[in-house]
Design goal:
The complex is a heterodimer of chains A (57) and B (490).
Chain A: H1 3-9, H2 25-37, E1 42-47, E2 50-56
Antiparallel strand pairs in A: 1-2
Chain B: E1 5-8, H1 13-18, H2 25-36, E2 42-47, H3 48-58, H4 62-72, E3 78-83, H5 95-107, E4 112-116, H6 122-135, E5 138-144, H7 153-166, E6 170-175, H8 182-196, E7 201-206, H9 213-222, E8 227-230, H10 244-253, H11 262-278, H12 291-300, H13 304-316, H14 323-336, H15 346-360, H16 369-375, H17 388-395, H18 414-421, H19 427-435, H20 438-447, H21 460-470, E9 474-481, E10 484-489
Parallel strand pairs in B: 1-2, 1-8, 2-3, 3-4, 4-5, 5-6, 6-7, 7-8
Antiparallel strand pairs in B: 9-10
Helix pairs in contact in B: 2-4, 2-11, 5-6, 6-7, 7-8, 8-9, 14-15
The chains are: A alpha+beta (57), B alpha/beta (490).
Chain lengths: 57, 490
């Protein structure tokens, strides 16, 4: 049995490598919640290759 | 290798359990193509409650919703969840209405109907299965579990044998109140499977409100259940069901084959995290099993939505301190009424009566008309007889004659509606007019929204930027991602 068949037999046949886009909507929600709940005037957020700086009034 | 199928309930029970049934058609359509590719054995797309909410509160045509979902999900069989003869609303409808309803949902692209009766009284819903068979629809009957001395394995086995005689394709053991213990489930599955003699498939689902559902699903998989119902992760747990992705992992740990695409499930989960955020809807939260709380809950089984209403009403009356007494009383009323499953409308009958009994300091002094009808048999036959002393009390001074709910089932209803309210543009419009008041339908037609088929464009970075520029308390944003650099001052 080849490796692919063995994975299929175990129910591991499909798309195991995770999401194809690196910044997810869940990341966006997490970032927005951090910003909204923070009392800091200036925030730096890094997620994967995303670097975000936000300055509040 | 054993295999378990998964039926998705993200569009039906998840919003009903967590979002007051307010999931918009547009939200469903945005992810429907991914759902169709996810490998679900079936997708339950709607119910009478969702139809009602679409018309009354969302001003969306529920028939159009079905047709569009069918267009975007051509591969996966779609299922419609039907509550007894109520179909939509509260009234018990006769045979001709049930038949037309099934014809219309089939025309809209539905292949499966899943029917339940809150008392597990199959005589009320036999007609549904007969019509489904005639039309070529496949059918599931839900048997609801209840923690009581009369809901024994033999009780469920007898029901299962009756369903085999009726020719249903699937018997679905359900635990709407989340009270089933894993060890009890094992014996239940073995007994019911034996009763089915391989003539119908066996499915299972349990709500997660007591924290038992994960272990029950695990047990069900080990017992060789054919199918489980699950939902997307952000709308899972609490009063909803377990998450598809978590149960996929459990199945793998058990060496059970599953035809689900994990990446698709992750995409679907990600989409609903975003939708919940932008629509300000709550996420499901896991509940940890607490044996002490479980014991209290299993006695009364007041469902979550009703519990929050009860707490609000008692608070407004300055009587919140009476809540423990009301819950204790609800446990007694439930027993006296023959252990109805604590789902609509029976949970309301029990809960409201418990409140009256406690507030008035005298049991059954005030009795709503619906409860009088219930004890006379108008809703069907409960699993245990109503306590005779309580029945005397409830019916004192009024009509005591038993009611046979099937008496009016064969009386034609549609011709009368056509003559009095017609003509209608379509059978679908006729049915909406039967299920809703004239006023509701006028408001619906005045406010009806156009549903647009817009393909989902997955651009989380754009969504982040759009959200940031909406915030008035931000004066500067600097974003770097790969070669992209944006700085915006406000």
């Amino acid at each position: 049995m080849c490796a692919k068949d063995a994975r299929e037999e175990q129910g591991l046949d499909r798309d195991e490598s995770g999401l194809t886009y690196d910044l997810t909507y869940k990341d966006v929600v997490d970032i927005l919640e951090v910003i909204d709940h923070s009392t800091c005037r200036e925030l730096h957020v890094e997620s994967g290759d995303l670097k975000l700086t936000v300055v509040k009034r | 290798m054993k295999e378990v199928g998964f039926e998705d309930e993200t569009f039906r029970t998840a919003p009903q359990s967590l979002w007051a049934t307010r999931m918009k058609t547009e939200t469903m359509l945005g992810i429907a193509p991914a759902m169709d590719e996810a490998g679900f054995a079936k997708i339950c797309v709607t119910s009478g409650a969702a139809f009602e909410t679409a018309v009354k509160y969302l001003f969306e045509d529920p028939w159009e919703r079905l047709r569009l979902l069918r267009r975007l999900m051509p591969k996966t069989p779609l299922n419609f969840f039907i509550r007894s003869r109520n179909l939509m609303g509260w009234q018990l409808y006769p045979n001709d209405v049930v038949e037309l309803f099934l014809k219309c949902i089939q025309r809209s692209g539905i292949e499966w109907v899943e029917v339940f009766d809150g008392l597990n009284d199959l005589s009320i819903i036999t007609w549904h299965f007969q019509v489904a068979k005639k039309l070529g629809l496949r059918s599931t009957c839900l048997l609801s579990y209840n923690e009581s001395p009369v809901h024994t394995d033999d009780y469920f086995a007898d029901k299962a044998r009756e369903l085999v005689r009726l020719g249903v394709d699937v018997v679905n053991l359900s635990d709407p109140c989340g009270v089933l213990l894993p060890e009890r489930l094992r014996s239940l599955i073995q007994t019911v499977r034996g009763a089915l003699e391989g003539k119908a498939k066996l499915a299972f689902f349990a709500h997660s409100n007591t924290g038992l559902s994960d272990d029950c699903y695990n047990e069900a998989m080990q017992c060789g259940i054919d199918s489980l119902k699950t939902v997307t992760l952000p709308l899972a747990y609490g009063y909803s069901l377990p998450a598809s992705i978590d149960m996929l992992h459990r199945a793998r740990q058990n060496g059970i084959r599953v035809k689900l695409h994990e990446r698709r499930l992750m995409e679907i989960d990600d989409y609903f995290y975003w939708k919940a955020y932008v629509e300000k809807k709550p996420l499901g939260k896991r509940v940890t099993f607490d044996p002490v709380e479980y014991k209290k809950f299993a006695a009364h089984q007041i469902p979550g939505g009703m519990m929050s209403n009860l707490e609000n009403q008692l608070s407004e009356l300055g009587l919140i301190h009476k809540l423990p007494q009301v819950l204790e009383e609800a446990a007694v009323v439930r027993q006296e009424l023959g252990y109805p499953i604590m789902v609509t409308p029976f949970s309301q009958l029990v809960g409201v009566q418990a409140v009256f009994n406690v507030m008035e300091g005298e049991r059954y002094r005030t009795v709503p008309q619906e409860l009088r009808l219930y004890v006379r048999g108008a809703y069907g036959k409960p699993a245990a007889p109503v306590d005779p002393n309580v029945m005397d009390r409830i019916l004192s001074g009024g009509d005591k004659e038993p009611i046979d709910p099937s008496e009016g089932f064969e009386v034609p209803f549609l011709d009368k509606v056509r003559a009095e309210q017609g003509p209608f543009n379509s059978d679908e419009d006729l049915l909406l007019s039967i299920f809703n008041t004239r006023e509701t339908m006028e408001q619906f037609y005045q406010n009806k929204k156009t549903i647009e088929l817009r393909p989902l464009v997955r651009r989380p970075l754009n969504a982040l930027i759009r959200e940031l520029v909406k915030r008035r308390d931000i004066k500067m944003v600097n974003i770097q991602k790969g070669s992209l650099k944006i700085e915006q001052r406000f």
